[in-house]
Automatic annotation (TrEMBL):
<dbReference type="Pfam" id="PF14863">
    <property type="entry name" value="Alkyl_sulf_dimr"/>
</dbReference>
<feature type="domain" description="Metallo-beta-lactamase">
    <location>
        <begin position="62"/>
        <end position="274"/>
    </location>
</feature>
<keyword id="KW-0378">Hydrolase</keyword>
<protein>
    <submittedName>
        <fullName>Hydroxyacylglutathione hydrolase</fullName>
        <ecNumber>3.1.2.6</ecNumber>
    </submittedName>
</protein>
<dbReference type="InterPro" id="IPR029228">
    <property type="entry name" value="Alkyl_sulf_dimr"/>
</dbReference>
<dbReference type="InterPro" id="IPR044097">
    <property type="entry name" value="Bds1/SdsA1_MBL-fold"/>
</dbReference>
<dbReference type="Pfam" id="PF00753">
    <property type="entry name" value="Lactamase_B"/>
</dbReference>
<feature type="compositionally biased region" description="Polar residues">
    <location>
        <begin position="156"/>
        <end position="168"/>
    </location>
</feature>
<keyword id="KW-0732">Signal</keyword>
<dbReference type="GO" id="GO:0018741">
    <property type="term" value="F:linear primary-alkylsulfatase activity"/>
</dbReference>
<dbReference type="InterPro" id="IPR001279">
    <property type="entry name" value="Metallo-B-lactamas"/>
</dbReference>
<dbReference type="InterPro" id="IPR036866">
    <property type="entry name" value="RibonucZ/Hydroxyglut_hydro"/>
</dbReference>
<dbReference type="GO" id="GO:0004416">
    <property type="term" value="F:hydroxyacylglutathione hydrolase activity"/>
</dbReference>
<dbReference type="InterPro" id="IPR038536">
    <property type="entry name" value="Alkyl/aryl-sulf_dimr_sf"/>
</dbReference>
<feature type="signal peptide">
    <location>
        <begin position="1"/>
        <end position="19"/>
    </location>
</feature>
<feature type="region of interest" description="Disordered">
    <location>
        <begin position="147"/>
        <end position="191"/>
    </location>
</feature>
<dbReference type="InterPro" id="IPR052195">
    <property type="entry name" value="Bact_Alkyl/Aryl-Sulfatase"/>
</dbReference>
Amino acid sequence: MHTGSGTVGLLLVMTLAGAAAGGETQVEPEVASKMLASQTEQFEQQVVEVTDNVYTAVGFHGANTSMIVGTDGVIIVDTLFGPSSAARAFEALRAYSDKPVKAIIYTHSHGDHTGGATAFAGDKRPDIYATENFGVAEGATAAAGPIKARRGSRQFGRNLSPSETTNRGVAPANTADHDRGKGFIPPNVRVPPEGLKTTIAGVDVEFHPAPGETDDAMFLWLPDEKVLFAGDNFYHAFPNLYAIRGTAYRNVLNWSESVAKMAEFRPHFLVPGHTMPVRGEETAVAMLSDYSEAIRSVYDQTVQGMNEGKGPDQLAHEVDLPEHLRDKPYLIEFYGTVPHAVRAIYAGLLGWFDGNPTTLNPLGPKVKAQKVAALAGGTRKLTAQMQAALVQEDYQWALELADHVKWLEDGDRELARTVKIAALRGLAAREYNAPNRNYYQSYANELESGALSELWH
């Protein structure tokens, strides 16, 4: 079982200190590959004996599923994405107990935690526990379902070839998704906002609503065993305070407070929604405390900058973790990033307008491209600058110039597409943030295959 700071390796700590200041997740390609390979240890497929009668199946899909063995039955915490992956995990867990399933608990409503319940429930349906507001995780953005699905596939690298994949930051790269959600069973026992204490199969269980990644999240506390199940409010990576697939605002302040509340229980064993469980009171409390502080610090710095009149672009390049947290392996930006969080906090609190009248009614992309080309001395010179940026491995600038060239009637749109593909792959090779890396590579493949429109929508 992983116990804390030594699990990812000295290389990662040194790289974080040297390369991640200012929210950068770009390093040399060989370093990025080594970092992501090391993070893969966090979800290698196995059953972990957390403590007596508590077992967690890691790596059978993207999330974890756990089994608590009671006197006359077992309790299942989270159920993976679909029945096939859940069945494989349950078979592995059954090596430790064949007692009937007395209850299933959903820590929140994301599909990778709820979609495989039928594999555990069997013919006799046990009680299914969830919060009273269960199901609100994606409701606010349901209307944007088609584009969210497309962007989600890019974020998770679902269509990447085996040679292009590494992992998903807090999950394996390749998972069985063909039966996603087909094993979901609606909850029939609702946990009120003030929480619930009960006994299931002889095990005392406490349910504590704790909004964070979702508003319907909760954590579980086993007071006798000193085990805390954190759901997706904690895992071994900087939290995904904003998902690039597209989400409604995740209340960052609530998230920080919920994790701080977990630390107050002083767990001896900490089971995240993804990645390896943690053993040891001192380690678990330190990790939760640092996690809460990191989230709160990003929030506070962003709000301070907002109130000073700074916009999201400036703040995304200025806000950083406090120095004493930058060398914590469980806060490396494998999944979420500080810049993404900053932008989400800004939009969540103030909306899209940054307060600068220049951006109140900005030029459309085609008009702006024409003016940039004129400023460069014409389309040919702008195109030359685009090509030079690629040769110089100034990949972000090459992307931005390619997006201008594509709008120009006299621009070489095919050349711009070629440059953008190469620049995206250059960025992907240097990314240790898995969602960014997967998105860059996936978008490059879509451009190359012709799956996107002439204007790359």
